[in-house]
Here is the input.
Amino acid sequence: MIQSMTGFGKAEVDFSEKKITVEIKSLNSKQLDVNTRIPTAYKGKDMEIRNLLSQSLERGKVDFIITLNAVDKSVSGVINQTVVKNYYEEIKDLSEKLNIALPSEWFSIILRLPDAIKPEITEPDEKEWLAVKQTIYKALDSLNEFRRQEGIMLENVFITKINNINRLLKDIEQYETERVEKIKFRVADSLAAIDSGSYDTNRLEQELIFYIEKLDINEEKSRMVNHLDYFVETLQSGNSQGRKLGFIAQEIGREINTLGSKSNHALMQRIVVQMKDELEQIKEQIFNVL
Here is the structure.
């Protein structure tokens, strides 16, 4: 079963006087590209966090976020003097411009604004870090489950598109005999207008056979059926198949292009265009496969 590289996972835990929230978002990427946003208290754990993520996520552009919120609002913090000063200067400047007096409770108002009070930074002890790691694992499980569900939807899309290409390939068969007969008739009609003594009939017959064989598409059809079957087998063979599916899609594209160049028939070429459209939709979605 394939997995998508697109996903989202979230987990929370209450520990002591803190609410710890872990969020993980992932998008498609050729390799694992991790961006972390973690509280200052956990900065020393950044490398360990990255190792945890790399053990579970093979590829993808990953945004990893930990946020801390106080469960007990009475938990002490430190006034961020720089932020409070900036807030005050901006409010004072605005009040002068608008000719509005500052409210008497301006200080308490500023203290309620974002980042005016910052929690005291303390390194997590062993118990807290264990709680954080367990929350990371839960968020990873949630992300991977999201990826699996997305993978199921992608697989259904791929199967539908592959079946469409198989159907279109069979639609070509009805024009093959007609195409060769038209070529023979056109050649015979042209020869009828030429004096039979002016060309070597044996050489002409050999050239005609060679020309018709060049237009034969049985080998291309056979190879394409094999590629289509192999694509489906690879879909169902396990995880981390994105690159392999991309290579198989390229091979399918080569056979479709050869069919188009050999078709020499308007309706066959129209079918080839439809096949290319189905394949392009497959290629677009393959970028999302892990």
